[in-house]
Every structure is written in C-alpha cells, then in structure tokens.
Amino acid sequence: MTFTQLRYFVTVAHLENISQAARLLRLSQSSLSKSIAKIESELGAYLFQRSGKKIILTPQGERFLEFCTTILQEMDQVTNEINLMMSGTDNKVKIGIAGCADTVINCASEFKKEHPDADFEFVFEIETLENIDINEYDILVYPHGFKYDKLVGHPLSEERYLLAVPRSHPLSVRPIITAANLVDQDFVFFRKGKFFIEFPYHVCTALNIPCRSQCFCDDRQSHVQIIASGMAVGFVASGFASVYAHPDIQLIPIENKRFSRPMMICFRRNKRLSPMAQRFRDFLVDKLDLPNPEDGDHPVPAAAAAGEEDEKD
After folding, report:
1. Fewer CB within a 10 Å sphere, N or C end of the chain?
2. Which of 122, 92, 16, 61 shows the shortest CA–CA distance to 280?
3. Shortest CA distance to 62 belongs to which of 15, 25, 10?
C-alpha cells in the first residue's frame, strides 16, 4: 500500500464518486477502481458501499479515512519541513515554555519587527509532560529541578509566584501576602493528567499551610474563571501574569521566597536549528545577556558530560 494509493482513496471518499475522482486524478476509471480494490484486499474489508448513484464509506472505510488523513497530513508536513531545511528557507522557531512566558514572548515580538517572516510556535505548559525531549524544540524554558536534570542550560531568571484573588476577597487590599495569610483559604490549583500538580501546591504542603477547601482544574482559562468568580484564590507565576489581567482579579506579591524558583533556558543542537531559529537564539543571547553557545553546543545529560571529562583526564 503506497501513499499514492492512500491519496486516491481519500479523493474517492470525499467525492463519493469513482468517475469524478478519476477525472480529477487524471486516471482511467478502471485503474482507480483497481487501486481501491487492492487496498480493500490488503485490509480484508470493504471500504465503500453503493447508495444510489453515489458510493459512501462503510464504518471500516470511515475509520480508514481518519487514518489516511492523519498519515498524509503528517507526511506533507515532514516533506515540507525537509524541503525548507534543504533550501535554507525554514523560518520556523518552536519554543517550549514552562515559565518566564512574558519575557520570551516580548523578545519574540521584538524579533518579529526585524524578521517579519519568522514563524513562531509556542508550546505552553511543557511542565505537564512526563518527559521532555530537547530535539522536539528549538528552545526550552524550564524550571531548575530534578525532572530536567538531563538538560544542561543557562540560568535565565528567578520567577516568583503571585497570589491571584477575587477583587471582592478581603486579601485583595493587602500590598503583600504572607504565609499566615494563606492559612484556611479556599484554593484552586492547576493540575494536568496524572503527573503534574503546579509548584505552589507542593510549597503549601511543605510549609504545612492548611486550607479550607481545594479544587483543581486542567487549563488556564478555567483557572482564571474560577478565581474571578470568587470561588477560590490561586497562584500565578509572574511570567503568566498577563493571562490573569481580568477586572475581577487582583494579583498580589507573596513574601515567602519559597514561592519562587530559578528558570533555565537551553537550545537545540546548533546543526539542527533552522536558520531562523539560529538567528532568534543569537538574538536571545544578546538581549538576555546569556553565555554565547559554541557551535554544536547543546543540552546533554549531565552524566554524559561527566563521562566526557573523565575521558579527557
């Protein structure tokens, strides 16, 4: 079964007519029919059934159409990316962000003024993923911690958490929040899947801060809505503060330094970066006063780096 045969099948499925599909594909009707029959033979299932003058998909055909659509879209995307890489005109920059979002986005906005053809893809909440692969991103911004010990990056900044409270809440008039102010509050925490509960939840647990109630949500918009409704207070990383610019929400600094963490930045291997990603990396290095990565410098497992040093000795 070839990609060409899959495209033939998709065309017939959309047009629901063999003769129209044959004309569009510039094939004889018999050749197209044989191609569909070969697919059905390999699958051991009928993909179409007649309905008057039309042919419509069987349940097996509908499932196969979903598969073909996904496969062909991915193939087209990969083909396009490879062609762009070979031509040196790939303008894509993919950034995984777990914090300092405002800093990164502001830098990207400034960079776009000089490079309006840059195509940015931002992947937020990478912290919710069980495993992070630097090879899937050009740039990663992540918290310093054991989960990321296989990445070797550069310190970016200290990101502090703010307390987001409804404007009707008694705490909304306070200029700063202490640990004592957090006792017996109604909290909403951001949780995603089985492996991630946001950092402040663990800080509250470590500080033995009792709460009156807890609720959880799995997306930022719900988090904003729950706080704005007056149901609970929540924590917001300073880099995501702009997301909480809501008339019914007040953001207040937290005094306790435990509600902060160092953020790191790392870059994909130089030879795997697109030309545009290389330019944006160099822009960030200059703008944020980061160490200038050498050619080929990229995040590697700390254990591997230690092994290389041993070999040199």
Report:
1. C
2. 92
3. 10
Give the domains, in start order, of the chain with CATH numbers: 3-87 (1.10.10.10), 92-155+262-312 (3.40.190.10), 160-261 (3.40.190.10)
Q: What is the pTM of this model?
A: 0.63
How many Cα atoms occupy the beta-carbon half-sphere of 30 within 13 Å? 0
Euclidean distance between CA atoms 33 and 8, whole angstroms: 10
pLDDT of residue 204: 95
User: How far is residue 280's CA from residue 131's CA, in Å, rounded to a whole number?
Assistant: 25
Three-class secondary structure of residue 215 per DSSP = strand
Pairing of strands 196-197, 185-192: antiparallel
pLDDT digits (tens, 9 = 90+) for 39-77: 999 999 899 888 877 888 999 999 999 999 989 888 887
Find all residues with CB under 8 Å of 238, minimum gap 6, and list them. Answer: 102, 159, 160, 161, 162
Greatest alpha-carbon pair distance for the chain in Å reads 79
Residue 186 Cα distances to 34, 44, 213, 229, angstroms: 66, 58, 5, 12
Number of helical (H) and strand (E) elements in the chain, helices listed first:
9, 12
User: Which residue has 């609970």 as its token pair?
Assistant: 232
**254 SS3 class:** strand
Q: Coil, strand, or helix at residue 284?
A: helix
Cα–Cα distance, 76 to 168 (Å, whole number): 52
- β-pairing, 185-192 with 233-237? parallel
| Cα–Cα distance list, 177 to 48, 141, 253 (Å) | 65, 27, 6
Q: What's the start-to-end Cα distance of the chain, in Å?
A: 54
What does the pLDDT average to over 208-230?
A: 94
**What is the residue type of 277?**
A
